[in-house]
Amino acid sequence: MHGQTKILAYLVWTAGIIVDSQRQGIVTLIWVHESFQVSQVRTLIQYRFVELSPTRIASIHFCTPDTPFHLFRRSALAIRLGIYRNRLVLSAGSTVELNYILQSYGIPTDTIPITYSGTIKVTPMRQWIRLRYLLEEPDHQESAESSSIVECPYLSDIMFRQGTNACSHPGNATFRALIATKYQEFCNSKDFKSNYKQGSRIFIEGIIEDIEESQMRVINWNDKQGYWKVLNDKSLIYPKIEYIVRELRTADKARLNQQKNDSSTSLFQEMDDGNGRKFVGINQAQEPSTNNTNAVAEKDDEVGCFATCFATDSNEEAQLNGP
Longest C-alpha distance within the chain, in Å? Predict the structure, then answer.
């Protein structure tokens, strides 16, 4: 058996171990770059091996440059796939265009081990090989730590990794939407205005309960070992959610302050004294009036205008000057 066929056999076997892969199938991605040389491997053996594999293939994505030669390769692959032809997705274009196409299918392109220039990323493969050595070690298979190691995150997992933005992950997007919805309800509650610290603690504990009820896993990246690990301790999950809530509150305060400043600036620009002159500020000098009655009336108008322009809603003021 050829070396590439052995690698394919091992990849399919490891994918079949995961319960979620057995339930939903696996997605095969074939990426062809202009800098790649045409392989001389007998691909018919690989196709026969895939047909005998116990793991179901959900879809096959074949991504190539948009050239006549690769057009011929796409056509040849479609003819030879046979029963898998209806699961084949052909895509052509530049590297950036192919990434956008894959993202439209929900495939996380940041995990593809290839750069835009065609350079292979060997670091993810080395990390995965070390993880497989660790999982297949007899002493480690019987330990309690092996059950908390995640080789491949689910789409519903909530991922935390320092220095990496994982907002594009479906589980993280669902988690962010859940917190944003609950946060708006929390802002309108009495706990937000009376005792923010106690109210935020209850709010975060409620979020953790929602995660447990929805059976979503919270996983954290281990930089030293190079793998994902499930977080079951609530004391470790709490500060991560607290940080997100603090970000939402800071962003909400900045948004309300910006709206207040924009409305104040707009009202100053539209103020006119009736003679074509516009006020540039509330401290602008006024010409003295000889009539006391007119002076008092003008003063009342100024106060009323200021109160009308800068009066704020009580709920908005409570959010801006919260505890």
Answer: 107
